[in-house]
Amino acid sequence: MMELNKVFIVGNLTRDPELRMTSSGTAVCDLGLASNHRWRKQGEDQFQEETCFVSVTVWGRQAENCNQYLSKGSGVLVEGRLKYDQWDDKETGKARNKLTVVASSVQFMPKSGEGSGAGQGGSTASQGQQGSRETTVEFEQGPPLNDEVPF
After folding, report:
1. Could you tell me whether strands 47-59 and 27-40 are parallel, antiparallel, or unpaired per DSSP bridges?
2. Rounded CA gap, 85 and 64, in Å?
């Protein structure tokens, strides 16, 4: 049986990145990400919105870039895998758990007002490109969501 653990999520940082170093000197950056899901109920004009809060862990040079260039409110596209962490709370002794995303790639999205000119786009920092910054494909705004089936 083939298994796949792959996540793509776009959202905004809920806080400034938190950078720390392991005992071996590897950078680790924790990000808090909020991603919104909007939909319109059938027969209603108003949109409904649900926000999902996600913890993201970034490693290596990519972690350093996130800490340097991102801040609360920054938009990012994260590609990674899900990781289930379990531990015992040191104060209460109770078992704790948390589902996190371990990033393999973090793309920096343009800020509001940016990205409308040709050649502008988000920057990326991925483990395969150790510290390089490059231009990515620009996302265009599509038409508003329409719940009607096109056929």
Report:
1. antiparallel
2. 23
Q: Tens of pLDDT along 72-121? A: 999 999 999 999 999 999 999 999 999 999 999 999 998 766 654 434 44
Which residues fall within 8 angstroms of residue 24, CB to CB, at 6 or more apart?
none
Task: Identify whether 50 is part of a domain.
Answer: yes
Asked if residue 147 belongs to a domain, the reply is: no
SS3 35: strand
pTM of the model: 0.70
CATH code for the domain of 116: 2.40.50.140
- First-residue to last-residue Cα distance in the chain: 36
User: How many domains are there within the chain?
Assistant: 1
Instruction: Establish if 21 belongs to a structural domain.
Output: yes
Can you give 75-99 as a three-state secondary structure string?
Answer: EEEEEEEEEEEEEECCCCCCEEEEE
Domain hosting residue 57, numbered range:
7-129
**For the chain, percent of residues with pLDDT exceeding 70:** 74
